[in-house]
Write a structure and sequence with these properties.
The chain is an alpha/beta fold. The protein is 36% helix and 16% strand. The chain folds into two domains: 31-68 and 344-448, Rossmann fold (3-Layer(aba) Sandwich), CATH 3.40.50; 77-195 and 221-342, Rossmann fold, CATH 3.40.50.2300.
């Protein structure tokens, strides 16, 4: 059941107060001798990745000095090592923990439901994260679930509290990231908490079913089949490696612990293409293949497009990286979940990072979709609350390419607008394609701060 708008508003207001209090102690200051003609770049979870610099090719150095936020918890070194064992070429870990948790929570929900029926799984998902015996590994949680015991899963991305009634995190952790030497400088990364533990659901899920041992007791529809809907191609492909590694690691560790419902969990790969047409085709393929839970999509806008198809098919859609806050209120028939926090929280974190540097005029550039424009709106609102008047803000959007064959983003006129406006801070909300914005700013003669 969706939480009320009034409750959400009160929760977000409290979150904003907490974020301001915890992050205002930062010491990051503008460089000495800076002027309003110098521009500092800021980014978000869609482009604050090590792989982003490569999108600028021979001009990769333009990212140096860029800073931004992303949903991220301090990842244990052991978890990183396990991910690297799955994919030794990983250079980023963004949303790997969320992907891992989405897969494991799905398996635990099926085990507790005693069935692979998506509707039964959906009814257990929120409860997996709240109100039972605490467990933190695939093996320990599956063992408890097989015994028919309520559990409270805590792991890499879920550390403080469980899901809300709407099926999303009630608390979150954000990292402030910095580009130095064309890569994220981990030594400068700062973490700040957001959200309220009291926002976690207190509703009791259906009573767990103890796993039977004989063949006659195995009328559960197993094996559990999960289908990937991750951005292997398209604008968000730069974020796919950690997403895929997190999902693969979870499947590996679930099956090493005996699987779910007495059988190994099956994974069927799938691409969302950062494109509705590609994603819809993948969903149709998963429906035909008998998938029970779809892990994805990567981008919020893609999930919004495919959700009606998923709901019509009666499957679960569980995203590790959707952050568009408006997804909370969609009519999903109780079948949509996410391990990534909504952008209503990230908007506050981003605004605080920008305000630390004391900008005079701020331009916010966003890809024209629900993710970009949604986060743009939240950041604008938070900046205005912080005292930045409308005359000191400029909002711009750009049309993202429809597919890999489309022409790249042309932000020439937008860059000239920003230069004429005299912005000394530019927030870029986008994916890999947003590198075109940085190139256009440099081509327009905008001096980027390093």
């Amino acid at each position: 059941m969706l939480i009320s708008r009034a409750s959400r508003a009160a929760t977000l207001a409290a979150c904003a107060t907490f974020l301001l209090a915890t992050s205002a102690c930062g010491t990051d200051k503008p460089e000495e001798g800076s002027t309003n003609t110098q521009v500092r770049l800021y980014g978000t979870d869609g482009n604050m990745l090590n792989s982003y610099a490569a999108e600028l090719k021979e001009r990769a150095g333009l990212v140096d000095g860029m800073k931004g936020t992303t949903p991220l918890t301090p990842l244990p070194e052991d978890f990183k090592r396990r991910l690297l064992a799955v994919d030794p070429n990983l250079t980023d870990f963004l949303y790997a923990a969320e992907a891992y948790d989405a897969v494991l929570i799905s398996a635990l929900a099926a085990q507790l439901a005693g069935s692979t029926d998506p509707a039964a799984i959906a009814k257990q998902i929120v409860g997996v994260t709240n109100g039972g015996q605490r467990c933190e590994t695939a093996a320990s949680c599956l063992d408890l679930a097989r015994k028919g015991q309520d559990i409270e899963y805590r792991s890499v991305s879920l550390t403080r509290a469980g899901f809300t009634d709407a099926g999303e995190p009630s608390t979150a952790s954000y990292a402030t990231l910095h580009f130095d030497g064309q890569q994220i400088n981990d030594g400068k990364t700062e973490f700040v908490g957001a959200g309220l533990e009291s926002g976690a659901s207190t509703k009791a899920p259906p009573r767990p079913k103890k796993q039977g041992t004989g063949a006659a007791d195995r009328n559960d529809g197993s094996p559990l089949v999960l289908g990937g809907l991750l951005p292997k191609t398209g604008d968000l492909a730069i974020a796919n490696p950690p997403l895929s590694a997190g999902a693969a690691l979870a499947i590996k560790e679930i099956n090493a612990a005996g699987g779910a419902l007495g059988d190994p969990v099956t994974w069927i790969d799938g691409d969302d293409g950062t494109n509705p047409a590609v994603a819809k085709a993948t969903v149709a393929s998963h429906v035909e293949a008998g998938v029970h839970v779809i892990i994805g999509a990567g981008g919020s806008g893609i999930s919004r497009e495919v959700l009606p198809d998923v709901v019509k098919a009666g499957l679960v859609l569980f995203s590790p990286s959707n952050t568009d806050a408006s997804l909370t209120d969609l009519d999903d028939k109780g079948l949509y979940f996410r391990t990534a926090p909504p952008d209503s929280l990230q908007g506050r974190a981003l605004a605080d990072v920008i305000m630390r540097d004391g900008p005079q005029k701020i331009a916010i550039v966003a890809r024209k979709d629900s993710y970009g424009e949604g986060l743009q709106g939240f950041v604008r609102a938070e900046l205005e609350k912080a005292g930045i008047g409308a005359d000191r803000l400029k909002l711009l959007t750009y049309e993202p390419p429809e597919d890999a064959k489309a022409k790249p983003v042309d932000f020439t006129s937008g860059a000239q607008e920003i230069k004429s406006f005299g912005a000394d801070a530019v927030l870029i909300i986008g994916f890999g394609e947003s590198a075109a914005v940085i190139r256009a700013l440099a081509d327009a003669g905008v001096q980027l701060r390093r």
